[in-house]
Amino acid sequence: MTRILAIANQKGGVAKTTTVESLGAALADLDVSVLVVDLDPQGCLTFSLGHDPDQLESSVHDVLLGDEEIADVLLDTEDKVTLLPATIDLAGAEALLLMRPGREYALKRALAEVGQDFDVIIVDCPPSLGVLTLNGLTAADEVIVPLQCETLAHRGVGQLLRTVREVQQITNPNLTMLGAVATLFDARTTHSRDVLSDVADRYELPVLNPPIPRTVRFAEASASGSSVMRGRKNKGATAYRELAENLWKYWDAGEGVRTLDF
Ligand code: ADP
Ligand code: MG
Predict the structure, then answer these.
(1) For residue 144, how far is its CA from the centre of ligand 1 (angstroms)?
(2) Which residues surround ligand 2, an ion (CB under 5 A)?
(3) What is the ipTM metric for this complex?
(4) Is residue 147 within 8 Å of residue 14, measured between CB atoms?
(5) Residue 185 carries which DSSP code?
(6) How far is C-alpha 250 from the geometric centre of its chain's CA atoms?
(7) Per the database record, which ranges form the AAA domain (predicted)?
(8) pLDDT of 200
(9) What percent of the chain shows pLDDT beyond 70?
């Protein structure tokens, strides 16, 4: 059975794209077949997986509008994951999709065509709660919220959870909120942990194990266009591998997801 996971938070810079890329690569290393979907018009996921959005003839935009078959648009990557790429065209998809009935279901319909080819599909949502994120949440079985562990991290979480509940009521009753993943976590101070336990308490949101530490290796990796997972061994990559194992045991072996205690 294919599991579809959306990574969503309307805040930018909380490591959504980094999480999709690193988790995808870590799952692929466990011999899981992975498709990652770039739903952000900025195309950062597409770019960091080695494809220049400006050079692509077709993208998820054409698939959502029904102008291309999804199978014709998929790309291979050096990370061993398959990519449904985005280009800046996607910025116009919001307006074009809004005029169509069933607009929230466009991605779900497209993924149904290739679902059986992949064990896990991970969707990188854009930094907004517009029709693209609604497409991601409507197509997904589960959603994870990356939270940057800094003061005010909770801002917007209430609104995101409200959107998830509306999707559960209207377009996708099967959607499960798996929890938050703590990103840019600083284990040397108590601040990150205090922020996390505050958000977890306030919204009754489980926090998945382990937190992802802040490490300069991520910035170096995006600058060089190569995944942090392929570089030298580092604590960020190790954390994403542990998170991938945690999720895969839950999906494949039916074990409970491991979460943090505060
Ligand atoms: P989003 O997709 O939510 O906008 P990104 O994944 O693009 O966020 O990450 C934002 C920035 O933070 C990027 O420059 C990325 O390299 C950096 N980053 C992500 N995770 C980490 C980390 N664990 N440690 C240090 N920098 C990180
Ligand atoms: Mg992003």
Answers:
(1) 16
(2) 16-17, 44
(3) 0.99
(4) yes
(5) B
(6) 17
(7) 3-177
(8) 92
(9) 97
Amino acid identity of residue 92, one-letter, is G
User: Residues lining ligand 1, CB < 6 A?
Assistant: 12-18, 44, 127, 183-184, 212, 214-215, 218-219, 222, 236
Both tokens of 231, joined, read 């570089």
71: left (phi over 0), alpha (psi -120 to 50) or beta: alpha
Q: Between vectors from CA 142 to CA 244 and to CA 118, what angle results, nearest 5°? A: 60
**Protein residue closest via CA to atom 20 of ligand 1:** 15
CA of 135 to the centre of ligand 1 (A): 23
Strand order in the sheet with 120-124: 75-76, 82-84, 34-38, 120-124, 3-7, 142-148, 176-183
Query: Which residue has the CA at smallest separation from atom 4 of ligand 1?
Result: 13
Tell me the CA–centroid distance for residue 216 and ligand 1, in Å.
Answer: 10
State what percent of residues in the chain have pLDDT above 90. Answer: 81
In this structure, which topology does domain 3-253 adopt according to CATH? Rossmann fold (3.40.50)
Find out whether 45 and 36 touch, Cβ atoms under 8 Å. yes
Residue 37 structure tokens: 């979907």
pTM for this predicted structure: 0.96
CB within 8 Å of 11: residues ≥ 6 apart: 127, 148, 155, 156
Ligand 2 centroid – CA 15 distance (Å): 7
Q: Which residues contact 214 (CB under 8 A, 6 or more apart)?
A: 184, 185, 186
Show me where the domains of the chain are located.
3-253
Beta pairing class for 176-183 and 75-76? unpaired
**Ligand 1: which of 9, 10, 18 to mutate, judged by most atoms within 8 Å of the beta carbon?**
18
Name the nearest CA neighbour of 205 among 176, 183, 184, 185. Answer: 176
